[in-house]
Design goal:
It is a single chain. By secondary structure, the protein is α/β, with parallel strands linked by helices. Helix 10 links the parallel strand 8 and strand 9.
Length: 504
Amino acid sequence: DLDLLRARDAVLLQLRQGSVPSMTPFDTLSLPLSSRLLMAVARMNAKKDAAEEGEPMQPRSPSRKLGCVIESKKNKGCRLRIGYVSSDFREHPTGFIMHHLLQAHSREAVEVYVYSINPNNGSPMRDKIEQAAEHFIDINPMTPKQAAERIRADGIDVLINLNGYTLTARNGIFAHQAAPIQVLYMGYAATMGSKFIQYVISDRASVPPEFAGLNDEKAAHLPNSYLPAKSLTPNHDQIGHNGIVGHGGASKLVTMHVEASSLKPQDLGLAKNLANAQAKHKKYADASSTFSSGGRHVALGTEDGFIYCSFNTVYKNDPVTFTTWMQILSRVPGSVLWMQTSSEDTSANLAAQLAEAGVNPSRLVLLGWLDENEHLSAKSLCQLFLDTPNYNAHVTGTDALYAGIPVLSLPVEKMGSRVGASLLHAVGGGLPEQLLRTSYRAYEDRAVAIASEAPDKLKEVLRTVPESPLMALDNYVHHLESAFHLMWELHAAGMPPQPLQVFA
């Protein structure tokens, strides 16, 4: 793809000139660029952040003696002070996760501070997080230096960056080294390329030892997935495993209809959304694809059809991945692919690409944005989730697995491309062997093969997801706290950061 090559060459030229690339570190994550190039872009941005903020604060000597955190249950003054910094304490995947995480933290082991760097938008989730936090401080109006001084005054031992290089991040706060230990966690699956972030929370699947050199941070491995999961969206438990409108174990759909009378209230929006999506593409329909519209029912597939889906944000796609998906559709007659976008331009571009490849555009069903319950319902109707190899599904992937949908992934060396592997290894039961592939051709072949296999082969394992380590949030938080304690013990002993492994 010429545009991709031009973008890569522009980044390389800017790096050679010693300037900050116009493409942000976050923009590079979903592109098929080398990990070394991603690291170079991150380092240049970290250098800029550090230069803008001036000299970091002088190191603070350990405020708690070695071993004190082990005695925290006996001495409240020994509790490790951890601080979470984010712009996403709102209706956002990070917000939903953090609400559950804060509730699960042990107040005997840690004292938790939450620092918000976004304005209060009055959302219910913001209120829930404020209530769940032991200390909630709005530092949005402060300059990075003022915010760092406030964090230093609070005596934070371990400061956690939940944004990384996402759009509304404020990494200048971390450039001041507001806490002795600063950690990258959850919101950004790549290196920060900085001297002011010492650790990244990970696991052996997302950051294997052989790829540890691709991160400037030391890896702190949790025993299962580094990504927490449990009821990550409102009313998750009400949705129910395997979905509310599942396909009853059928491996082939014969123009399956969802009747309005069979839907729960939270599904009616999904039914209308599907109807609108299919009506939009009706002009492309031919004898091999029968679509219907209207509020009462929608057709989800065709005779002998198979429903693939990828509910990752469209920007995570790239030409090689989309070409592979078109090949899959070509090899599986009557199959359809569900994607999610509200952009008319994106819809038109994707339809044009299918037509150019000789694939009827009606076989691509583009849904508008769904609310949380509709999102899970849509996943429960899908039969195979196609992950985007360059930057995987995160919360979207855990939701798919929770709904009983297999997630096919292609991990490479980048952490962002190995999140699917992290989730599947946490579930276990042979899923990594069945759903992880090491090349695009193997990925394509496996997607084709699954469409013809008996569904129970994977469904039996997927039924265990709600009870798997992936969803055991209380255990997860205990392991996370153990990682923070290990970091602090090393620091209190005067030792530099080093790779850590927390055991179950």
